[in-house]
Amino acid sequence: MINKFQDLLTSVDVLNTLHGGVSEPFVSHREKVDGQEMRVRVPGIDRELLHVEIHNNHLAVFYLIPINSTGQLVQMPQVVYKELIPVFIEVTGIKATYEENELVISLPFNKLSEGYNKKIEIE
To answer: In what order do the strands lie in the sheet with 58-69?
Structure first.
């Protein structure tokens, strides 16, 4: 029974790969003193192919897959990560770099998220 189950798993893995399957990306988050750090690794994808974008306060990490559709080459995005950026992150300070085989995204804390205080003089 165990051998048949392992054969089934191997067959599924091979068929997935043959039919365009993708490796599971790795995304981790770490809290630092001055902000958060996100690390992304996508097996089988060259680092030059990864894109990082902010759109409508959502942080997205993706790569493009070329697909031939009716004789035209169309670039389809494969999303690795897409989430709303929390209010305690300074959106304008987000930066991305590479460390060896990982994309590292720095998410600095927004100092104003702790509260903005100001006495307003009444005129």
So the answer is: 50-55, 58-69, 72-84
Confidence of residue 92 (pLDDT cuts 50, 70, 90): very high
How many angstroms separate the CA atoms of 113 and 6, rounded? 51
First-last CA distance in the chain = 83
Domain hosting residue 85, numbered range: 24-112
Q: Is residue 91 domain-resident?
A: yes
Whole-structure pTM value: 0.72
Q: Of the candidates 43, 25, 22, 52, which has an alpha carbon nearest to the alpha carbon of residue 101?
A: 43
In a domain, 101, yes or no: yes
